[in-house]
Amino acid sequence: MSFAKLNVLHWHIVDEQSFPFETPTYPNLWKGAYSRWERYTVEDASEIVRFAKMRGINVMAELDVPGHAESWGTGYPDLWPSLSCREPLDVTKNFTFDVISGILTDMRKIFPFEFFHLGGDEVNTDCWKNTTHVKEWLQGRNFTSKDAYKYFVLRAQQIAISKNWTPVNWEETFSSFGKDLDPQTVVQNWLVSDICQKAVAKGFRCIFSNQGYWYLDHLDVPWDQVYNTEPLNGIYDPSQQKLVIGGEVCMWGETADTSVVLQTIWPRAAAAAERLWSTREAVSKGNITLTALPRLHYFRCLLNSRGVPAAPVDNWYARRPPSGPGSCYAQ
Predict the structure, then answer these.
(1) pLDDT in tens, 58-84
(2) Nearest 5 degrees, angle CA 299-CA 230-CA 292?
(3) Do residues 129 and 135 touch, judged by C-beta distance below 8 A?
(4) What local confidence, expressed as pLDDT, does residue 283 receive?
(5) What distance in Å separates the CA atoms of residue 69 and residue 328, rounded to the nearest whole number?
(6) What mean pLDDT is reported for the chain?
(7) Catalytic (active site) residue 274
(8) What is the DSSP annotation of 270-287?
(9) How far apart are CA 4 and CA 59, in angstroms?
(10) Residue 40's beta-bridge partner residues?
């Protein structure tokens, strides 16, 4: 990352499949890890933050709530609304928010970066409506399940803010109840192409990471499409452009592990890095095959010489080896 001047690592540290993070305040949470050998201790996480800092990189941790959280209930089943409704987390219990607060208290000792990601994406509330005590709670407050989703996100935001973090949330929160989000909220785009345009028009800051071009696990997106993607597209007011605080290329791990992850990230991530660190005019002029491509060829070879197994730039399908013999500077 430092070679390409990417300066924030967004660490999606837990998800529905696994809770690998040691949380001293609630020590049973990491019973939700894949195995006891696939966990991060407090010392592990602290070392990652230290290692990143030495290279000019901040680490933004993510605790994705209320969805993507089934693994939490392995250690604390009361976090599940029921055995047949294991996510979203139980919105009715103060215990749920006590656990979130405890996790964030532990994480605050490790992650000094000003931003903290609270997720909020892909929340399917159907089973809330079909779980008796949650249904009664909704009725008692005259809430729809969407109201409960909002209640959960806003309460989690206030917990993060109380610990001197600026909350970051995925775009669904803005699309669903943007006017109610805390004004400090940073909206992260992934799904809809014009979300940053809409978010900054409402005064929110935004991170661009549209899945169509900047999701690295989409292996059929070639380098030039990554390079030509403009985070400021449709945003012409200079004051609103400043609210797009950056962009992110996302390396989701469902179909990658240590055997292929670096080849999947590089060199396409470098194409986005040049776009982010350059003015729109600088990267939009001329034939990028003659201008940008030789730089990416060189950078890919530089990574290889430094021990990073970056895949060929010219692959139509990312992370594949070269199609035949040839110079590194022409692949």
Answers:
(1) 999 999 999 999 999 999 999 999 999
(2) 30
(3) yes
(4) 76
(5) 43
(6) 96
(7) no
(8) HHHHHHHHS-HHHHHSS-
(9) 16
(10) 21
